[in-house]
Design brief:
The protein is 70% helix and 0% strand. By secondary structure, it is mainly alpha-helical. Helix 4 (54-65) crosses helix 5. Residues 58-88 form the EF-hand domain.
Length: 108
Amino acid sequence: MTDTPAEESLFHIIHCYHQYAAREGDVETLSLEELKALLVDNVPRFMASLGRKELYYITELFRGADKNKDNQICFDEFLYILGKLMKDYHLQYHQQLCAHYCAQHSLY
């Protein structure tokens, strides 16, 4: 039996986390630089949509997730980041749908 698209996505997220965590220092945690690289490399359109706020956004995600204040993001803390990222991405998705609908119906 093959994995569902959701199962594949979960595997890829876990694999991505470990791939970036292994770049420097502790191979089980992400530094701010590793998190930045992970996000810029893997969600580039979303990051680009933030414009100049990109670094601020990533720093705020990092600070909010780093519950034990060790300047590292463990996998459990990364789950918080994923939740926030999904929430923000979902909001952007709805804004794009609304803009598309309004443009199609001459509501601008």
